[in-house]
Design goal:
single chain; 23% helix; 8-stranded mixed beta sheet; alpha/beta
């Protein structure tokens, strides 16, 4: 029989960016909060002198153990889903801070178009522009309404950047200046300028200078060591929950973190959550944590899975299009890119930072005319210098042997003579892309695994080809001697890394029939449950999701405080 603990004001499931922000805001307001994290404790000291590419980048030290819990995948409903046995397409973080520890730090705001994509597309191009099976929808909140929360996240994290000339209006400049511009980045910016495009420095959570935020948290500037993605930052220069918001919550005395605590059910009765059931993974003991408010802030798959296992909310049925939990799963299309090879120039590609780069949004959102194109949206185009670590980076021109003397010779020759221009393309939602519980495979506790049904569509193929051609044009303008770029997008592959930007499944909206949560991330079907994260996205934009997740977390914290005071559904 499960042990029942004393009741708390709020229990948070998953202590990453969203959970850490909400814990910080609620505890500063005097609420007692318990944070349940199924992974281990983390601190900055854990990363001192651990520039170990094999351990962290290739053996996934910071990631979820797939032998204990994974996901299953199928490209369509006609075939059986199989478990993901080794990491490939995306990397699921584990432990205190979650994916906020191993992220790169690229901190873009979504475009105003992203939040009203369906209405704006229909208004400009007509209903026929949206395929019948495409289920994109407006968020129920506009960019202008979310802007103050973006600003709050950037101020907390000390984001370094400069204004995006094609982005939404800002209430304040970035709190710290942009990062250093390398020679390669300068070449990209100058080439883009000659092509009448609008480059700007990537907004970065890798600090450009020492910074103290409004909560009194001081952090040091980035050292440009090139070990950001898949690594923790030993300097604390990369904003992550462990060095920003979690210490603030701890300082209040109102926050209790319990690591190694795997939440398996949200307990509820009569349309209200009563608490959560979790397993102490060190002892196997089952524990009930009662709470007035339950906040679900784990990763996308875990948010959806927990709701489905708890039978909370209406499961999505792809046959009818009804239901909301699991609906509108979307990914990111990162296949439109160009690699340029330079014979007479060399670059210090080993140095860099996770968010060091120059971007442009001329081909993102609806910043360009789609009238004659067979797709909507687009993606950000960037030249980044994130640190070309030796094991994972050995670019060679097309036509080179895949192994042997020629491969080795050219790998060495082009190690510092190759540059890449990449894109992050938006991913539109479709009726037949969804998340549900796998009927066959289970985890170590006997609970059904999360199943993904997804593949690239013609929309993605057309968009990727278009973006790759634009990347190649810029690379040629930069003077590369040879340019290789994507010619055709194949099927989605679960085993090829692209990004960790999974979205949807607990989507946000203004009406309960077509969404799972309102714009405060409050569940329509249980008003004392808040589900926060990229699971709220009705579709994915052409950017990294973290800044938007952070903004939604600050808005959710505001909503939770309102709910604690007055109760009921928030408007």
């Amino acid at each position: 029989m499960a042990k029942t603990l004393p009741k708390t004001d709020v229990v948070i499931v998953g202590v990453g960016w969203a959970g850490g922000i909400i814990a910080s805001e609620l505890t500063k307001s005097g609420l007692n909060v318990v944070g349940l994290e199924r992974g281990k404790e983390r601190k900055t000291e854990d990363y001192f002198m651990v520039h170990d590419e094999l351990r962290y980048a290739l053996r996934y030290e910071l990631m979820q153990d797939l032998s204990k819990e994974t996901i299953t995948f199928r490209s369509n409903e006609k075939i059986r889903a199989l478990p993901m046995r080794q990491y490939g397409s995306f990397l699921i973080g584990d432990g205190l801070g979650g994916a906020g520890v191993h992220w790169n730090g690229q901190t873009y705001r979504f475009l105003p178009y992203d939040f009203e994509i369906r209405s704006k597309t229909v208004e400009k191009y007509g209903k026929g522009k949206i395929p019948a099976e495409m289920t994109i929808q407006d968020w129920g909140i506009t960019y202008d309404e979310l802007e103050p929360y973006y600003d709050k996240f950037e101020t907390m994290a000390g984001i370094s950047g400069e204004e995006n000339p094609l982005g939404g209006k800002r209430s304040n400049p970035y709190p710290t200046p942009p990062m250093k511009k390398t020679p390669a980045m300068q070449m990209f910016a100058e080439a883009a300028g000659r092509l009448k495009l609008n480059p700007y420095m990537v907004p970065s959570a890798n600090l450009s200078e020492n910074y103290t935020n409004p909560d009194g948290i001081s952090r040091a500037a980035c050292q440009y060591c090139g070990y950001c993605e898949r690594f923790g930052c030993e300097y604390g220069a990369k904003a992550d929950p462990v060095v920003t918001v979690i210490p603030v919550a701890n300082k209040t005395g109102n926050f209790q973190i319990r690591t190694h605590s795997n939440v398996r059910r949200i307990m509820h009765k009569g349309g209200k959550a009563t608490g959560v059931l979790y397993t102490d993974v060190t002892t196997g003991e089952e524990i009930v944590q009662p709470a007035d408010i339950v906040v679900v802030t784990s990763y996308v798959f875990n948010n959806v899975r927990l709701l489905l296992l708890s039978e909370l909310g209406r499961p999505y049925d792809p046959a009818t299009g009804r239901g909301v939990i699991g609906r509108n799963y979307a990914y990111q299309v990162i296949k439109g890119s160009a690699i340029g090879f330079f014979e007479k120039q060399q670059f210090n590609n080993f140095a860099g930072a996770g968010a060091l780069g120059v971007s442009l949004d001329d081909y993102n959102g609806d910043n360009f005319d789609h009238s004659e194109l067979n797709f909507i949206h687009g993606g950000v185009v960037s030249l980044g210098q994130t640190g070309a670590r030796p094991i994972q980076n050995n670019p060679v021109p097309s036509g080179t042997a895949a192994w042997g003397p020629e491969f080795k010779t050219k790998s060495l020759h082009y190690a510092n003579r190759a540059l890449s221009i990449g894109t992050q393309g938006a991913s539109m939602a479709y009726k037949h892309h969804f998340l549900d519980l796998d009927p066959v495979y289970k985890d170590v506790y006997g609970d059904s695994l999360m199943r993904i049904t997804f593949d690239f569509e013609q929309q993605d193929r057309e968009m990727s080809k278009f973006l790759a051609e634009r990347c190649s044009e810029i690379m040629k303008e930069m003077g590369a001697d040879k340019v290789d770029y994507l010619k055709e997008l194949g099927p989605y592959e679960i085993m090829t890394y692209q990004s960790t930007h999974n979205t949807g499944g607990v989507m946000m909206g203004s009406e309960p029939d077509a969404s799972a949560v309102n714009t405060y991330s409050q569940m329509w079907d249980a008003d004392n449950v808040f589900v926060v994260g990229a699971s709220s996205f009705p579709q994915n934009a052409g950017y990294n999701p973290t800044s938007t997740v952070g903004a939604l977390a600050y808005r959710a914290a505001e909503g939770i405080l309102k709910y604690k005071d007055k109760g009921g559904l928030l408007v």
